[in-house]
Amino acid sequence: MEGRLKSAVIGCGGIAQVHGAVLRDMEEAELIACADIIPERAQAFGEKFGARAYSSLEELLEKEQPEVVHLCTPHYLHTPMAKLCAQRGIHVFTEKPPVIDREQWQAFSSLGDIPGVRVGVCFQNRYNPSVRLLRELLEGGKPGKLLGGRAFVTWSRDAAYYTESGWRGKLATEGGGALINQSIHTLDLLVQFFGKPSGAEASMANRHLKGVIEVEDTLEAAIDFAGRTALFYATTAYCANSPVMLELVCENATLRMEEENVTLLWADGRTEHRSFPQGGDPGAGKAYWGNSHGLCIGDFYRCVQAGEPFPNDIPGVRDTMELMLAVYQSAREG
Predict the structure, then answer these.
(1) Which domain holds residue 115?
(2) Does residue 27 share a domain with residue 114?
(3) If we measure between CA atoms, which residue out of 208, 150, 209 comes closest to residue 183?
(4) By C-alpha distance, which of 6, 1, 46, 43 is closest to 26?
């Protein structure tokens, strides 16, 4: 497949601005349309990025013929919208999480069986230079066997973040809280480093927004990866949006990552520090989201055009989705 792929963005809120900026600068894409149930928001997005604006996905699909649709809508809409597009032969690139429960995961997984349609999920942090460095170190073998790890996400979300959105903080539309929304990227990175999980035990609570939200603002889990334990902690009850910390303990070294800063603590006493400049357009989104959206979206388009597997396709996110659902099941059912 050659030429530019005609693209549309559905949902014109905060994260859509990042997708719009990436698509505007990509040679492989032509952003032709956008849609949002708030017409003024769709119109503003369309004027900013040169796209025709519509008030719904259905209206857009009636009048336009996009080849790729980007889903930047509330969580609960990702699966049904992906299904609607895929069944029309349109490639789908969806924001996280692609699903909010096991029923949706079953439906979303089946989209991979539709001939000629590619489905990708925006786990952009897999493309961060710091993440790539840790993966290269582990694959190179110098740190030795991976023994265990820990990950901490301590961010801040106030009541207005939920109440002004119309969908966040509600189990039926957000699907959960601190795990499914804020820290799913960090959970995904643990899977990237450790491989397929074999079990999890978790608990969750609402620490600071009781009576405001139905979902958790704090969750902790002990995750088993074939006999190796990774401890996971995520909260939105902190006073600031601190850098995510992820640590991997190996036989010969401890590898510690805080956003784009990596510290290597070798068993012989040596310490190495490596820092990477933030890539992408920091002005397009929040710095602590990571700025690798351009790399992730660009890779999806490259894989579609080249007919190659996309790392974040349905099989590529399966272990993370299964783990997320299992952690919630453990936390809710004990």
Answers:
(1) 5-124
(2) yes
(3) 150
(4) 6
Closest to 154 measured CA to CA, from 248, 224, 219, 230 = 219
Domain count, the chain: 2
Looking at 100, 124, 148, the residue that finishes a domain is: 124
pLDDT at residue 284 tops 80: no
Sign of CA dihedral 68, 127, 237, 235: positive
Residue-level pLDDT at 169: 98
Q: Which residues pair with 234 in a beta bridge?
A: 153, 219
State the pLDDT confidence band at 105, using cuts at 50, 70 and 90.
very high
DSSP letters, 8-66, are EEE--SHHHHHHHHHHHH-TTEEEEEEE-SSHHHHHHHHHHHT-EEESSHHHHHHH---
Q: Which amino acid is at 45?
A: F
Q: Longest C-alpha distance within the chain, in Å? A: 65
pLDDT of 183 > 80? The answer is yes
